[in-house]
Design goal:
Chains A, B: Keywords: DNA-binding. Chains A, B: InterPro entries: Homeodomain-like_sf, HTH-type_TetR-like_transc_reg, HTH_TetR. Two copies of one chain form a homodimer. With 209 residues, the first copy, chain A, is mainly α. Helix content of chain A is 76%, strand content 0%. The longest helix of chain A has 33 residues. Chain A is elongated, with a radius of gyration of 20 Å. In chain A, 40% of the residues are buried. Chains A and B meet through helix 1, helix 6, helix 7, helix 8 and helix 9 of A and helix 1, helix 6, helix 7, helix 8 and helix 9 of B.
Chain lengths: 209, 209
């Protein structure tokens, strides 16, 4: 957008930066809030306080809890997938082992982000309007997580059964995320993922490392 | 409890029966209610109305929503596991195929009962008092589902890795239950479980049927 008052230009960029930073603080606080106090306790006002943002400023960015929470899970997922990609790509001369890949996925699906997303999915399951907002987000995040896993495992989906095995890996870690909701399930999860990595190597016909 | 008025004896049994029937109606209505309208909409009053029971009678059985919902998920799980056991045991001269077992588990974890349990787990994740009530229930249901699966598959858990593979099966169907929360995921689930049955047969060293 252009403006007729070029003298205001110098201050515009910083103001946009500040607005973006405020928005990001709200999104991060919303993920934390959902993961720790749940859907009912996560209102725009509570998140604003947690983020150190005035209620007015928060409401300028997000009018409703639904808007804020959906944007927060979308933002958190994008950040998490980018981080995963970075960790899997470096060092670029070595493909990560199957065990490293499934461990990273296990971490992703037991993070506060997963707990926050779970709150949103469950709330959407009995709220038609929210469900309509959440469905495209769920589909997009699902697709990206699938693509990331295929690439990380170097899986060849043209081989019959491989696509289903990759999907099973993601459904498995989702189930593990649910199992970690109420108790510290990390010891069992580590044993299970180690065994799963072996199964996966056999199913993908990949030499064990 | 004995009574000094033996003449009242004949009517006592039917009254106890009626009380048990009322209780059961409340528990069944609570599972349906949780699965369809979620935690926030499931109050003792709403469940009583759905069950066709007076509010007073409902409150005689369950003082709080937490008490009612925990008892409902416990009751529903016991019924479901008993039904599963019946279906797996008959006909007793033939062991069910791996595919039949994983399909039954897939059904169990996409039923209204799973959706109801999910509401309870998620509510408990941000409510310390409720979590204390839910933890023993979650552990008990988890143990029973595990035992049922081991028996149905005829899995030998003394072989290294078999226990983890059985557990992975349950975590997988739990993940599938979550994936079915917002959309009809049944076609993908069927393909995935068919492939999983093959993987499981290999891992358990069981001839494919």
């Amino acid at each position: 957008m252009t403006t007729q008052a070029p003298s205001r230009e110098p201050s515009r960029e910083p103001r946009q930066d500040r607005s973006r930073a405020t928005r990001r603080r709200l999104l991060e606080a919303a993920v934390d809030c959902l993961a720790s106090v749940g859907w009912a306790g996560t209102t725009v006002a509570v998140v604003a306080e947690r983020a150190g943002v005035s209620r007015g400023a928060a409401q300028h960015h997000f009018r409703t809890r639904e808007e804020l929470v959906t944007a927060a899970v979308e933002y958190g997922s994008a950040v998490r997938i980018a981080q995963m990609r970075e960790r899997l790509d470096a060092p670029s001369d070595r493909r990560p082992s199957t065990l490293e890949v499934v461990r990273l996925l296990g971490e992703m699906y037991t993070s506060p982000l997963f707990r926050a997303a779970l709150q949103l999915w469950v709330a959407a399951s009995s709220d038609e309007q929210l469900r309509a907002q959440v469905l495209p987000l769920e589909a997009r995040v699902g697709r990206e997580a699938h693509r990331l896993t295929v690439e990380a495992l170097g899986a060849d989906e043209s081989i019959p059964g491989v696509r289903e095995t990759v999907q099973a890996t993601l459904d498995l870690v989702r189930g593990l995320g649910l199992a970690a909701l109420l108790t510290d399930d990390s010891a069992r999860r580590a044993r299970l993922l180690a065994e799963w990595a072996k199964t996966l190597d056999k199913a993908l016909d990949r030499p064990e490392k």
